[in-house]
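Lab intake sheet, docking and co-folding queue.

SAMPLE TYPE: protein with bound small molecule
LIGAND NAME: zinc ion
LIGAND FORMAT: SMILES
REQUESTED OUTPUT: full 3D complex as structure tokens
PRIORITY: normal
SUBMITTED BY: R.K., bench team

The fields below were copied directly from the construct record.
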Amino acid sequence: MLIDTHAHLNFSAYKDDAEEVIKKTLEKGVFMINVGSQYSTSVRAVEFAKKYETGVWAAVGIHPLHLERRNFNYKDDNELEEIEIKTNGEEFNYENYLVLAKNPKVVAIGEMGLDYHHFEEGDDVEELKTKQKEILLQGIKLANAVKKPIIIHCWDAYDDLLEILKNNELEKKGVIHSFVGGYKTAKKFIELGYKIGLNGVVTYGISYNRLIREIDLRDIVLETDCPYLTPVPKKGERNEPLNVRYVAEKIAEVKNIKLEEVEKITTQNAKKLFGI
Ligand SMILES: [Zn+2]
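RESULT FIELD (auto-filled):
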């Protein structure tokens, strides 16, 4: 049994068939947490979770890229697919998120965090960084208020994130999702009590084999970040929660252990972290 700890069936990529995908996923014995990236997708994540007795949970938060009005279209260094994201620039309304966060189907705050990868020419970088940090602190405050963990998005900002997590303790800790750093950096987060979220990115070649070998299975949770980051061998298709098994297979292969072991331990980790 596997848990996709970071799915976005609440995104428009599934506007026509989210329910179908959820049903198919549950039938195959895979559970999921749908993660909000702004208020509207957070609300939708909670709505989905409320429809199912078990197997579907929600996380609510605001992704740092949604703090500014932008139109992204990029291909990054890891040969990820081209992604187009339009954002409106949204305020983080603590009280509104608090109402959502109290719902028993909400098992985490997120995704929230720091993204220094997408600054554009003409940006006041220091101002944007300061704003992202302030909102992340609000997220930490919210997580502690409802005693739930946090799902953190972090791109090109691990040092600042470490600093913030060191100085602002989270009672329930959380996960550094879609981790793309080195193993030494990963170990610093693990020392602070955080899990490392691995997804399809680790299947794109050998770049993350060292990371997989160096970190303990007990510190890993699995995810897809669907519809993005489709793992090999499905790359090129829209990603979905069932593909989380390819991430598990890659970890088993690199660590030279049984797939069942990866399933068992990472599922235990997710259940414990998110209280499910
Ligand atoms: Zn995500």
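REVIEWER NOTE: The first strand starts at residue 2 and ends at 7.
SIGN-OFF: pending second check by T.M.
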